[in-house]
Design brief:
With 381 residues, the protein is an alpha/beta fold. The protein has 16 helices and nine strands. Helix 9 links the parallel strand 4 and strand 5.
Length: 381
Amino acid sequence: MQNFAKGLAVTQLIPKKRLNELIKKWQVDKGVTKLSTEKLLDILIRGFIFQKQTLRDITDSYGVPKSTIDDALRKRSYGFFEELCSVAIKELVALVNERKLRQEMRELIAIDSSVCLVHGSMAERFISTKIDRKVAGIKFHAAWNSTCEWIEDFRVTGYRRHDGSVGKEFSFSRGKTYVFDRAYIDLSLWLQVQKAEAHFVTRLKKIGSRLKFVHAYSGIDSESVGILYDGRWTPSQEACRRAKIEAKTVFFRHIIYRDPVSKKLFDFITSDFECPAIEVANMYRRRWSVELLFRWLKGHFNVRRISFKNLNAIKIQIALAVFVQLLLKYQMLKDNFVGSSWDYLRSVRNTLDRLFFKILTESANETGSMSNVLPALRLEP
């Protein structure tokens, strides 16, 4: 915790040399005279940690003009920040492998999206993000590793972009299990996961004539709970035609499950024929962890509504929220912290508050005035 309080910087997760290589690769400091990329990252990371509500709150706290940060976010390439997160994930995986903390169980990756509101002026300029006449929004798509508790990949798209089409843009890794909700019902996506030698678990959208036949054929009643059916599922001819494959050449596992508490019936489809049926149902239940991630980011990092009026700045803000989540997870592992991410974030805030108060009181005692202390705490532009 003390090491985190001293630095609170991007270089605690990304080595300085690697960071400079990325800066040079994307030329994000080319022609910059007022605010370097590393300084910008430090300012924005501190803004997330201390839950600054707006850009004005950040500029007032750190003494950097609002126009300077606004220009920096509008002109710098979003690709740099996206690759920064990719490098951070590699550093996390390396740390876990080095300490042999990775669990023996197969990693479960939950993929889903959540809407973040943006400034209403963008509703006219970006029609694809339009929700209604006065409110605009973007979609934050995340691949959440619920086993290791970090964000493995993410995308930022317009509000009207369909989840299934974005799901195909993610990279799938061998040996992992990917869990989708009903918005990702797409045979092409399922085959893409299988091609990567991974597995998937999803849920069928609605009870159509085919499902009614299976339910009737299996003798499913309204009282039984738990696993009610475990058999094969063949995609329809129409689905095979859209996926450009021959009908009845592929099949998946179909599991019908009724929850003992809610009595709700679920039709699960998976490519895993070896895993126990009840474990498949539990995998889908664990998909809810990605919803908790969205709530956590919106509640603690204020990405529920983003005040920027520039799409590039909005995407950078989302990328930095992901990076700070990775940074916190990295520090939790380094400090061997036992507890939730919220417990750790609260401890960080409390530690930094005490550190800043100590600096203020010691400097005030030396100078006899607080007026000379506050500028010293601000980051130099």
